[in-house]
From TrEMBL:
The organism's place on the tree of life at top rank: Eukaryota
Organism, as annotated: Hipposideros armiger (Great Himalayan leaf-nosed bat)
Entry-linked NCBIfam families: ATPase_P-type
GO molecular function: ATP binding; ATP hydrolysis activity; ATPase-coupled intramembrane lipid transporter activity; metal ion binding
Gene: LOC109393741
EC number annotated for this UniProt entry: 7.6.2.1
SUPFAM superfamilies: Calcium ATPase, transmembrane domain M (SSF81665), HAD-like (SSF56784)
Name of the featured protein: P-type phospholipid transporter
Amino acid sequence: METAVNIAYACNIFENGMDGLFFVEGTDVETIQQELRSAIDKMKPQPLLESDPMNNYFTTKPTMPFRIPEEVPNGNYGLIINGYSLAYALEGKLELELLRTACMCKGVICCRMTPLQKAQVVELVKKYKKAVTLAIGDGANDVSMIKAAHIGVGISSQEGTQAMLNSDFSFSQFQYLERLLLVHGRWSYNRMCKFLSYFFYKNFAFTLVHFWYSFYNGFSAQTVYDTWFITFYNLVYTSLPILGLSLFDQDVNETWSLHFPELYEPGQHNLYFNKKEFVKCLVHGIYSSFVLFFVPMGTICNSVRSDGKEISDYQSFSMIVQISLLWVVTMQIALETTYWTVISHFFTWGSLGFYFFIVNFLYSDGLCLMFPNVFQFLGVARNTLSLPLLWLSVALSMVLCILPAVGYQFLKPLFCSLTVDKVIDRIRRMKHPLPPPSQTKLKQSSTPRSAYAFSHKQGFGSLITSGKFMRSKKRLLSFQK
């Protein structure tokens, strides 16, 4: 255990000046339970009460899944437990006592563990904390732990490649974990949340138009859009813009991500996509579908061309709604994109051009004459695209749909700012850029720690680890004489 403590201090898991370290070395359930409860009593200002949910768990088994409450200790503490004691601590009801103690500590060290125990610790956290877990290892004895965690990371070492082959990510040095989490992990989370929000929004806006149309078609099976538009909407027209965002978008570059690790916190609390954000997408989609249906309806209703011909037909209305929808969802993803590249511009604006190319091809005279039952919109593209009312309807629909989104993005940092908003504002106010991130310097300990960890038998270990000879100069001088 002495080796584990020294490594913990070297890795900054434990820090100098901590309020205390708790060693769990019991050889039976009663002793281990007493050690854990003693640690909790010391970390909490008040002793455990009879109404404490953890005490109730030891008397009656709860019918619903139990969840460890969030508790704040009265200082910084560390917990060290060996594999022999851990075998008892992971059994039955004592596992909750162990997890509660561990969650109140700043750092926890489990040493001399078996591969099964490593996996059991991960499963314990997944079961009661409902947290996303990450396990990192470099040997075959870490494979079970890597597989048990949500995210497994393998390090290439002299012990073999078993850990790398069974992991989700692998690299050569442990220091790369910082970049994996704070840079690529955070970017990936932001992109995924934007992808989900945009995906739900564009499909709500696309689908709910039929709800408004049902009041005019007698609730029949008649669709607003052409069959080919329905086929290509998610497959071609709106797939490339979200692909570009999912691959290249960055709210903050890698340098700032490493300088401000607090940017990682929103992902831990799942702030960017949750039930609240889903409801926002639903409301936004309902509003957009309302605008996308009734603005074109009001624009072409009882309207005529310059030559006196009526244009309020089903096919013209369908195409106006199609074009308005594509412009609205494309502008929406353009607002969500914070990092533009050449590929992003090509995917976003090229998808609109690709739509007009496909429409002119599908609605051409040749295809409609050869396959009249398949391509029924004969000449609709040519006639509709030449109407000024079309572009008036598209512009009006786009303004009404995008204006609330622009206002929300403008007012949100003022009244409900997130961590990334504060960091971006701080970056804009800085006159000089920050230097490149440097590695954290380890603080030298003012209190000497013994390196006694070479034998399984303690022997004179209590004398060596006490540090009395190192702390007392007089005793040291008398010893030399």
